[in-house]
Amino acid sequence: MTDRTFESAAARPRILIVGNAGQLGRELESIFAGIGPIVAVDRESVDLADADQTHALVRRAAPNLILNAAAYTAVDRAESERELAYAINEQAPRVLAQEALERNALLVHYSTDYVFDGSKPEPWIETDAPNPLNVYGASKLAGEQAVENIGGKYLIFRTSWVYGPHGNNFLLTMLRVARDRDRLSIVDDQVGAPTTSIALARATHAIVTGILAGRFADWAGLYHMTCGGAVSWFGFAQAIFTRAAVLGVKAPALTPIATKDYPTPAARPRNSVLSNAKLLARFGVELPPWESALDETLEAVRNSA
Ligand SMILES: NC(=O)c1ccc[n+]([C@@H]2O[C@H](COP(=O)([O-])OP(=O)(O)OC[C@H]3O[C@@H](n4cnc5c(N)ncnc54)[C@H](OP(=O)(O)O)[C@@H]3O)[C@@H](O)[C@H]2O)c1
Question: Which of 72, 114, 136, 223 is catalytic?
Fold first, then answer.
């Protein structure tokens, strides 16, 4: 007999959210409230670098749906903390995938544009060959492969340049540094799609509830999921400061610079724009353009100030 634990829990799945204090985890916890009972954990309840703790967490929570928003996301620090980055970005998703498979639960996992080397001029598609330039990207790629190799019911959403009204991100850093600085130099030769934690959580919710309602068949796999459009970090900073007057932030003078003039421990891809065509074709889900998502997030920042 086929075990149909996940499908038969469609009416009220038990949900485990891992990493609920992070940018995305926080939004997932709020949008999935009401769908089913939620166990939401962060570092205080579980150290994902410890496989035994991670196994025990899932067995305790006994979920039908696991949303893994936790990750080691310190891109530059990962260059000198390789082992820790792999423990959280490869080993932990592997353990979650093993537990999901055993329970016939759905695992939703997130990955990054930094699995690519940025050399392609067009947006990257899911079947393009990854070639990470840094330890963070390599550890996230290893995590994707671990989940895929275990199989079962999984969704991997690769996203990019994540920011939101809370946490460590480019938007909040820009707003903070503008208080003390009249001039800022920003990299203009790395292009990507800034993507909000809110848009990611909404799209995840639409897809998972669609699956629970039986609207899709053969849905497991890897998908790109970013806001629409593309911009450089410099262009993104310009867009932020054009809109930030409503927050009482005075715009600094911005100077575009090249990556070579802003050395960092980790190399980053020049073009990390991802094509979302597969996500749209498969689920009919499309995230908003990055500009309107920025407007919405600035409004959320204003309301939480
Ligand atoms: N941020 C981006 O620009 C970006 C870009 C592309 C893809 N992504 C991917 O998108 C997903 C969500 O990212 P995000 O920006 O929401 O990340 P985030 O804000 O950095 O949140 C990650 C969460 O994971 C937790 N965590 C880290 N190590 C842990 C451990 N050993 N045990 C338990 N919890 C631990 C962190 O806790 P602490 O805060 O205590 O460390 C944090 O709450 C991740 O898969 C990430 O790789 C992010």
Answer: 136
